[in-house]
Input
Amino acid sequence: MHKKRKSEDGSFNIWRSYSDMMCGVLLLFVLIMCVTLFQAQKSYDESIKEQQEKNEMQANYIAEITAQQNTLDDQDAKLKTQDEKLSALAQQLAEQAQKLKEQEAALAQQQVDLDEKTQLISTQQAKIDNIIGVKAEVVESLQQEFAKNNLNVNIDSQTGALTLDASVLFAYDDAELTEEGKTALRSVLPIYCKVLLEDSYKSYLAEIIIDGYTDTDGDYAYNLELSQRRSLAVAQYLLEIQGEFLTSDQTIDLQDYLTVNGHSMANPILDADGNVDKDASRRVEVKFRLKDDEMIDELSNIMTTDQASSDNAQE
Output
């Protein structure tokens, strides 16, 4: 009996040792599993964290790319605006270049015109100087001849116009020459006409003009008729006495040159205060015109036009 119990105790110990071993193995397995799960969880957490970091980096990168794209879009818009401005500026420059070209062409034409006018002026200048000189000589000759004959006459030193007082020639409101008027005309008209009809001046002479004027009183039409009748009376008297001091050829020339005009109350004479001097306004003027006086007037108009064009160009 005693021996059999011993055998049972040994078998029990074997199984207990086996059981302990299995428990140890199971514990070890559990520990390994725990370690493995821990490592897996740690790896998973690290992977999640890394993925989050990558996502965040990707989001930042996308935001940066988007910002850069927006910047590029803004720059493109600015470049487009600048291109439009440059295109508009190029168009303006082209238009200005065209205008400048047209202005240059206009200036070239103006220069051609100016050269032509300058040439014309140069060509006429000698003639004008000659005409001015001739006119001055005629006026001087008239003054000298009147001085030789001790006649104190009212003769314009610039134009050579001889002014005769109507009160000496005519009665008031009348066109018939008085004896006193005939005497005055007989003393001055021969001298005036003889000087103008001299061979040295006759080739330049265009007209011998007799102009009649009234004062500003009364009706214009009536005064026009009166001034015409008075100037005509002087001309008729001149033709009556011309044979006394002119040759036959000069007589024919005088008839060709003589012109008679009536101006009514036009061009009245003013006194020092600017008021109409009625006595002085009632007058007859004997004057002359040279052939090239028109040329002088034309040159004056050319110079006036050129001056106006120059002033407009400077503006």
Remarks:
- Residues 2-148 form the longest helix (147 residues).
- The chain has a mean pLDDT of 86.
- The CA atoms of residues 156 and 162 lie 7 Å apart.
- The radius of gyration is 63 Å.
